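Follow-up to my post from last week.
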Amino acid sequence: MGEYVPSQDLLPRIDRGETVAIGRLITRAEGDVPEARDALANVYKRSGKAHVIGITGVPGSGKSTLVAAMTAKLVASGKRVGVIAVDPSSPYSGGSILGDRIRMTELANNPNVYIRSMATHGEMGGVARSTLATADILDVAGFDVIIIETVGVGQDEVEIVKASHTTVVVSAPGLGDDIQAIKAGVLEIADMHLVSKCDRPDANKTLTDLKQMLTLNAAKIAQSAWRTPVIGVSSLTGMGLDEFIAALEGHRKISVSSEGDKRRLEIAAFRLEKTAKRMLLEEFDKATGSARAELAHRLSRKEGDPYSFALDLVRSVTQ
Amino acid sequence: MSQPIRVLLAKVGLDGHDRGVKIVARTLRDAGMDVIYTGLHRTPDEVVNAAVQEDVDILGVSLLSGVQLTVFPKIFKLLEEKGSKDLIIVAGGVMPDEDAEAIKKMGVAEVLLQDTPPAQLVANLKRLVSERGPR
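User reply:
Got it. Predicted complex:
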């Protein structure tokens, strides 16, 4: 059928915003295709104009619906918006059902919106391995705002803060004790808090809870030029969305200041570390496959101990 | 590492029955594929835009409403306009044999109707992707 188009040849077409070319390079980034690495390196160097916004929160908190509503607002104000929607992979089959698009059907035909669904494929931090490379590609393709919607998170999936300029944590009303439960993890990373479904009467309690929690963090407040806001929104009625968009713009201004430089450095450091570790793991898997099976057998027969065998394996790769 | 096959499953037009397509989605998920489901009542435009943005290997269109002979020509025309050259199109659902033949002539790679056993469905899709080769 089709023939293989070299990744370098996709680049000028991506610059022109050609959907087919954008989609294909993202696929190759996701598959970690070696042939695409030079093209992705080129894209990385030229990216950096877009405002990358991370949206995270518990499953069912309304992230996808919110992303649809905010994207519609941003597009109406003349922005081009890329959406990266991450859903979990099955721990059993490795497959996935990516359903975020269902909430975004009204955006499907808008030429200023690009939506890409991706599965976590075993990554634990709430975002997929190629999420940042995808953001680079969309950035170079001329999207002004890139929204990364994480998987529904629990307490510990906080990688999004190292992947976005602005991190938004969405909480839904009525989850009661769940709010308490996540206080130690995900809630700490927010640049802004949204309480979704504020058309519901019990939303006020959640708003108050979050505001009170933030006041306990006096040390952080004193250090930063940014005051983490708590905004009630309803994607259903549109309530609070304008305030939310204005807050995003406000945070973007901070993110181009010296505080932003710090954040960009953190993002770069994190990405370097992730990429290097992944390469190291791949080397390890490739180099030690047969030796590992052999050592496992010997270990099960108690012919050695796990510490010295593991050290042998590591040394066989690093030396 | 080999990449999971990406499939977009779509319901087009006035067709409110999605139990079948959800079973297909689950079957493919359990076979290790990434499945994007668009929901009900999509237009050919929406489906093609989604398939191109998502850069899926396979676009599966489920039809129980008898509109296959109008929907597929639209889908193929839109794909050509977009410059998509290697997307594999598969049809599912219920339709007369002569319609199945007709849409195959238009370029639908496989017509897998309601009596297709799950294992055969999975095997067919894997074969289609491997025949296409790397992309």
